[in-house]
Design goal:
By secondary structure, this protein is α/β, with parallel strands linked by helices. The chain has one domain: Spore Coat Polysaccharide Biosynthesis Protein SpsA, Chain A, CATH 3.90.550. Helix content is 48%, strand content 14%. The chain has a 6-stranded mixed beta sheet with strand order 2-1-3-5-4-6, sandwiched between helices. The radius of gyration is 22 Å and the shape is globular. 29% of the residues are buried.
Length: 233
Amino acid sequence: MQHSSKTALMVYAICPKIQAGKKAVFGKAHFRKSLELFARLQENTEEIAAQSGLPTFWIFDHEQEGKTFGERYAKAFDSLFKEGFDQVISIGNDIPGLDSSHILRAKEEFLNSETILGPAEDGGNYLIALSRKGFDKNSFADLPWNSDSLHHALKSWSCAKNDHVSQLEYLIDIDDFDSLARFKEYSESTDFTQFILQLIRSILAYSQAKKTFFKEVFISKDNPLRAPPAFLS
């Protein structure tokens, strides 16, 4: 199939519900808040993809065939190359610092490079841009995905094929509460950082209210270590 653009944008994503369950950024007790966070991150990614102007393909990992993440991810790249695209830029949906300029810069870097990598601070990558020429699905699938050595392995994999590799700036992807706190610490005040603050404040307020409730019910002299029937029902 022929396309007017040689470059495609692939959002290879883990759906918000699965991310919220696996990462539990605010703890298992606050699953809904984690879900709210990842749903907002996906909305941001949708806006960024639209701003890039590139033909965009959303591929969710749980819908792909393959035994391992590497097999599923490699198949996603391969399917777009078979669609006729010469270059594929892949991003995730959990990078709060990502904007369309990173995608457009990766597209420009294809003029001089076959591989463009956006490294994440945890050793992974928030952006992987590859050319169809020289892409090997099997060796790509065997890279150490979901590990802190991925970025180094990707560079070595590309250099072994004599590809020229370009690298973008480091960004933070959201894996846990610490990574979310680091993003807030180093980022400017935006609608998204304000959204994060509101989430955290609501959780702190809930925790404080729960603590006060338990103190009143279980520690009160009038109700020593006994909850009312309505609480137990």
